[in-house]
């Protein structure tokens, strides 16, 4: 073998290695469905609940994949919050329309109704769900999924989940289940705040535990290949498509439950409106150095706090110079995410008794906090002394039981 042949062989080997290393380790439900040549959908009229996160590893939309497949009859789309193409701002009403690219009718599930009506399901044999979730109960897509499952059961429509990774992995469970009287679209089912399941596994649990009603739906989950419970999103090799404007990167899924409850109070910036959504806690009256020192002195596992000064472009504190802390997750396995915001509020109350955040919040904001927490007990216990230790046990009271219950619905090791 001469030098030129050896060089060509080396280039080919390096190209092969680079291709293998770059290939995603995980195949999502839509890619497994493609491998199956769409056989589970053959001969059926298909409705699809999705948004821009419904893509394959080459970023092709599930809408377009199903629309172009010769043996799939895609006849309707269903829009969750933000719309099927992601063109609706957070919280804004989504109107029914026609998809401009495919000409397929789009039914809104974030407008007059959040549950498909019998009219919306007329002419549909199977309702398919393909949305990337972030593993937190208050993120509305799982509420859309569960209500659609209920509608499917009531109308004799099959339901299929094209599974995707939980970006927090499959072990993390935090927060008490939703209690009677606190069910809402941000706490639709009695599951913990962080629930440690993929959307396919969660669908099986909602169905099996009759959380969607006494009548189960005819559920099929197209499971992923290559995913395991110790994987967060970075380990999958998959491209990240932001599921909403303030979840731009996979790490954002970790920060959302770390600060989102505090953000509902409207009395402090959590970085929404700046370049680091959910990673910050700041206000005009905070001394960044003092707060970071107090929080670092707590020695919270897997966490560090850095002083920061910034001016939000919009949302809380818009146009105002704020200071506070940036939260750094130094060890994802050791950090307890949802408790961080309560420790921050605790230390702020100690440093600035005149700025106790719950005391400053409007009643509508407090009601929303209770809905997100799934109970009023966390707020009531915590605000007696503004000490997290007073509410921590209640926050964790259902974690062990849920972990035990959910194991029977695992699809992945």
Describe the overall structure:
The protein has 413 residues and is α/β, with parallel strands linked by helices. The protein is 32% helix and 13% strand. The protein is built from 14 helices and ten strands. The strands form two sheets. The protein has a seven-stranded mixed sheet with strand order 3-4-2-1-5-6-7, sandwiched between helices. It has a three-stranded antiparallel sheet with strand order 8-10-9, covered by helices on one side. Helix 7 crosses helix 9 (340-351) and helix 8 crosses helix 9. The longest helix is centred in the N-terminal third of the chain and has 20 residues, at 3-22. The N and C termini lie far apart (47 Å). Residues 11-21 have low confidence and may be disordered.
In a few lines, what is going on in this structure?
The protein has 14 helices and ten strands. About 3% of the residues have low confidence.
């Amino acid at each position: 073998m001469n030098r030129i042949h050896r060089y060509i062989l080396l280039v080919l080997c390096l190209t092969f290695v680079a291709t293998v290393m770059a290939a995603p380790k995980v195949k999502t439900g839509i890619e497994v469905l493609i491998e199956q040549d769409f056989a589970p959908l053959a001969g059926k009229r298909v409705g699809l609940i999705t948004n821009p996160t419904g893509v394959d590893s080459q970023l092709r939309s599930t809408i377009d994949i199903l629309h172009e497949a010769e043996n799939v009859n895609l006849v309707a789309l269903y829009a969750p919050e933000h719309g099927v193409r992601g063109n609706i701002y957070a919280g804004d009403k989504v109107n029914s329309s026609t998809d401009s690219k495919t000409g397929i009718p789009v039914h809104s599930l974030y407008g007059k109704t959040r549950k498909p009506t019998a009219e919306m399901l007329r002419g549909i044999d199977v309702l398919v769900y393909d949305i990337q979730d972030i593993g937190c109960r208050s993120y509305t897509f799982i509420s859309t999924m569960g209500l659609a499952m209920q509608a499917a059961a009531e109308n004799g429509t099959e339901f299929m989940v094209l599974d995707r990774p939980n970006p927090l992995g499959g072990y993390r469970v935090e927060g008490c289940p939703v209690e009677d009287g606190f069910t809402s679209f941000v706490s639709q089912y009695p599951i913990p705040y962080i629930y440690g399941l993929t959307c396919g596994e969660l669908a099986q649990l909602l169905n099996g535990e009759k959380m969607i009603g006494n009548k189960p739906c005819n559920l099929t989950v197209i499971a992923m290949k290559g995913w395991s419970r110790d994987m967060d999103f970075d380990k999958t090799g998959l491209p990240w498509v932001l599921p909403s404007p303030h979840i731009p990167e996979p790490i954002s899924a970790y920060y959302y439950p770390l600060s989102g409850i505090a953000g509902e109070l409207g009395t402090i910036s959590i970085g929404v409106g700046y370049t680091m959504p959910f990673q910050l806690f700041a206000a005009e009256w905070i001394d960044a150095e003092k707060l970071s020192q107090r929080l670092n002195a707590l020695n919270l596992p897997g966490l560090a706090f850095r002083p920061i000064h910034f001016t939000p472009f919009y949302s809380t504190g818009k146009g105002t110079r704020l200071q506070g802390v940036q939260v750094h997750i130094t060890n994802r396995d050791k950090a307890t995410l949802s408790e961080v915001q309560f420790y921050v509020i605790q230390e702020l109350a100690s440093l600035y008794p005149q700025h106790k955040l719950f005391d400053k919040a409007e009643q509508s904001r407090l009601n929303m906090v209770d809905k997100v927490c799934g109970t009023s007990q966390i707020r009531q216990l915590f605000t007696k002394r503004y000490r997290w230790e007073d509410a921590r046990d209640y926050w964790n009271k259902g974690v062990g039981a849920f972990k035990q219950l959910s194991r029977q619905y695992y699809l992945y090791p």
